[in-house]
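PROTEIN–LIGAND DATA SHEET

This sheet pairs a single protein chain with one bound small molecule, flavin mononucleotide, given as SMILES. Inputs appear in the order they were entered. The predicted three-dimensional arrangement of chain and ligand is reported afterwards as a token string under its own label.
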Amino acid sequence: MNKISQLISLLGGTGAVAEKLKIKPSAISNWKKLNKIPSNKRKDVLELGSYLNINIEHFLPTQKLHNFKFKILLIISGGIASYKSLEIIRLIKKTDIELDVVMTKSAQKFITPLLVTSLNEKKCYIDLFSIEDETKMNHINLARSPDIILVAPATANIMAKLANGLADDLASTILLASFSKIILAPSMNPVMWNNLATRDNYKKLLERGIEFIEPDTGDMACGESGKGRFPEPRAIFEFILSYMRENQKLSNQFQDISIIITAGPTIEAIDPIRFVSNKSSGKQGFEIASELTKRGAKVTLITGPVNIPFPNCENVIKVKTAQEMLDNVTQQLPADILICCAAVADWRLIPKTSTNNKIDTNNKIKKTKEKLLFEAIKNPDILETIAKSKLRPKIVIGFSAETSNIKNNSYSKLISKNVDLIIANDVSNNKVFGEDFNKVFLIYKNNYEQWEKQSKKSVAYHLVNRINDLLINYNKRAVNA
Ligand SMILES: Cc1cc2nc3c(=O)[nH]c(=O)nc-3n(C[C@H](O)[C@H](O)[C@H](O)COP(=O)(O)O)c2cc1C
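PREDICTION REPORTED AS:
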């Protein structure tokens, strides 16, 4: 009897397995004949084994993920389920994913770093103030290098620390210093889970784009029952694998596509120390640049002066004025896509005296008894100039900051400037600029969408999906033309 036939008989025989998996018995007979389970059924079979409480892993070949060069940082915090993270380590070790592990002090009350080190065959990190590790700023390296930071189990405490920006140990400092995708697998007593403080923290984290593997409902180790049980380690592992697969699929979505993104404010000098500008932080444009880079695009980011770290894209050009921004966008053409996210100053101000005396703007303007007047000179409209130029990219997208009549104003801009999509936001009452969240409208020629308030990272992710749709439609039209 071959391995798969043995496995099927262990699970109750062909008929029972077919019934449980809702597939034809002939399909199961085929698996037995070929001594192979199709990869899309592997998960169902493993779940059936776990449901029947039979360990069947050794019947199935280990998963080799040769295409992935993924790096995971697993943070184990201190809950009753900490020991289950050992199974996650074991499952990850069966793949070619690179794994580092950090443990909190409380986690070390439940399992030892030595056990984790020997399972992972690699040093387990436990100390923020380690002289040995910190010679190379290890907490920053650990924060920056992984594709995913998985916190499993995640205690109520570590959720609260992350939600409120506390960084008082290695794990919480890494979480705060990271750009990586953070996935939390919480596990705690149901009263702790339902506590309003934990609910608030959960909501805050979700809004910031942090992902959750929800706890299961059932009997707890503490004798109570409800929501809060740590999910099966295999379910967590499968979640991570599907996240990685999705990422891999997306990683070449924009291969060979050149994209120019403008971001941040522009500043228009009045004299060497005074200027006109606006409150744009650059965050939304940087998130879009980062998401498109992850999906394989060749991104040139042209940014005004900002105080945030640059994303890891192909080319970053720093500019100050609207004219410099336009000149640099023009130099980068031709490109497939232009996304004008920068808040370009609409005017520059030329100082004059009331008697029209000439003012030396190369030096600091001195106070005089005469009234100082400013002539507002219109800056170039980068979006419109490029959208109406001979080198117009295939797709041109603009951002529009409005304080009233958002939809109508944005639609007028879309039409008059010859743009494919306008992302409009309401900036009245100091909303949006500098914030981590954004609430946007997407205005197309024939329809519009209104999105829920979400993190700028999340807006970037969903927006890039829409840009992909626009590109597919453009290519279809080009083929049919
Ligand atoms: C026996 C025991 C079991 C615990 N289990 C959990 C748990 O499952 N989930 C949780 O959030 N906290 C649990 N705690 C409380 C945490 O250990 C405590 O909040 C600690 O400060 C968490 O620290 P950390 O988040 O830095 O790992 C438990 C405490 C003890 C003593």
